[in-house]
User: Fold Radical SAM domain protein from Staphylothermus hellenicus.
Amino acid sequence: MDSIVFGPVPSRRLGLSLGVNNVYNKYCSYSCVYCQAGRTTRLIIDRISFYDPYKLVEAVIREVEEKKPDVVSFVPNGEPTLDKNLGLEARLIKERISVPLAIFTNASLIYREDVVEDLLLFDIVSVKVDTVNEETWRKLNRPHPELSLEKILEGIINFSKKYRGKLITETMLVKNMNTSIEEYEGIADYLSNIRFDKAYIQAPIRPPAEKFVTIPDKDDFLIAYNIFAEKLGENRVEVLNYPEQPLFKFSENLVEEVLRTINVHPIRLDYLKYIADKRGANFEEILDKLLKTGKTMIAEYNGKKFIVPRRKT
Ligand code: SF4
Assistant:
């Protein structure tokens, strides 16, 4: 049960974020080409029960008390709203702690009333809007065939009318997939219909599911930013195309903590070395232990080496 809580990891948006991995690896309604958790193995849209919600909540509370994160985030290696116990878990956690509760969803099920009810319980909701173009959506996010982009986009607008917490949007740019002026204008026009707090434009900075995924050029981000800022206001747009600082807050059992974390959040080897050095541990030994578990491997991406879960390529 403990393996479903990881970190805290440094979040570029939220500070130190204790992660809750509330679905099994990798149950998702999308199989995004850039997913840092690898290809989706169970492409589903039915909400099901994953972990015992009471045990999940106990694990979260225990880690919050020990590690004192800035925020608790449901950010699994899959889609968090597939968990049919999500609302119960959010309610139970909020009864016990005052740390803000966040969720990062691809929003694919937001057309459902029960999903909206669950999301309304969170203090911070992040929704994915990589494109408003059906063809791009199918190629980039590779959704479950029964999903409809139109219903999702309409669902996000309806949700934003009801929601009183902090709503953020995430747009991941992948070179030559959604990096055109038409794409940027389409997304920005769409977002102008939504009551949101911040629109983040992101880059795939960690090893992606597909090798062909490439980080866009600086100019792509500049053009996207300018179009978003013009239509939405400068203070509501931010580009996140840089890595976070290596400020992970791990306990003494570094190998175990890294194993839990990389299921969702691959870690750069230079960061792992920084963390090991800081606590006087031997980096080579830690790396050796991680690789000998048979559960991890080293992946190279964009000139950097990462420790990631062992995957079929
Ligand atoms: S990036 Fe998120 S939505 Fe896309 S496949 Fe990965 S877990 Fe699912």
Notes: The chain has two domains: 2-240, 257-309. The chain has a mean pLDDT of 93. Residues 28, 30-32, 35, 37, 40, 78-79, 106 surround iron/sulfur cluster (CB under 6 Å). DSSP finds ten helices and 13 strands in the chain.
